[in-house]
Design goal:
Blueprint: H1 2-29, H2 35-43, H3 52-63, H4 69-72, H5 98-103, H6 106-115, H7 132-145
Length: 149
């Protein structure tokens, strides 16, 4: 009987972990742009080519003027390497997450940089901190973080 209780406890813990991971994954792919603005945001295309020069300019902005690094980390993983069990609310995005990369268009990212993200600590950065051109450069850098090295 004791063994059965252990099995039930292990299965319950596994389901709790799976449910937590599934909820996090759903939150990762949930659009951050409001429904009424989503189609227009998705239609925006990055006018800059994804050259090594543009990516490097975006990297410099991410680590400098844009201070993205303060929340999203040096490697773009957000708080992925931190025990976040005691934190409340939406956590900074992990830009290396493949499902996040696939779920977001450049236009959505541009919209978020201009308008912030409701329900998160992500504020508006365009035009108060970054120019439109700089925002597109940062987006190229964010895309580079999702590529295999």
């Amino acid at each position: 009987m004791r063994a059965m209780g252990s099995v039930v406890a292990i299965v319950w813990c596994g389901l709790q972990l799976w449910g937590s991971a599934a909820a996090q994954d759903l939150d990762t792919v949930r659009p951050r742009v409001p429904e009424k603005a989503l189609a227009a945001a998705r239609a925006l295309k990055n006018p800059l080519p994804p050259t090594p020069t543009m990516i490097e300019k975006g990297r410099a902005l991410y680590h400098g003027k844009g201070f993205c690094v303060a929340c999203h980390g040096i490697d773009g993983r957000g708080l992925a390497d931190v025990n976040t069990s005691l934190l409340k609310g939406a956590l900074p995005t992990d830009f290396t997450h493949a499902r996040w990369q696939a779920a977001r268009t450049d236009g959505e990212l541009r919209w978020i940089l201009q308008n912030g993200s409701v329900g998160t600590a992500m504020a508006s950065f365009v035009p108060s901190v970054l120019t439109e051109k700089e925002a597109w450069q940062v987006i190229h850098y964010l895309r580079s973080l999702g590529r295999p090295r």
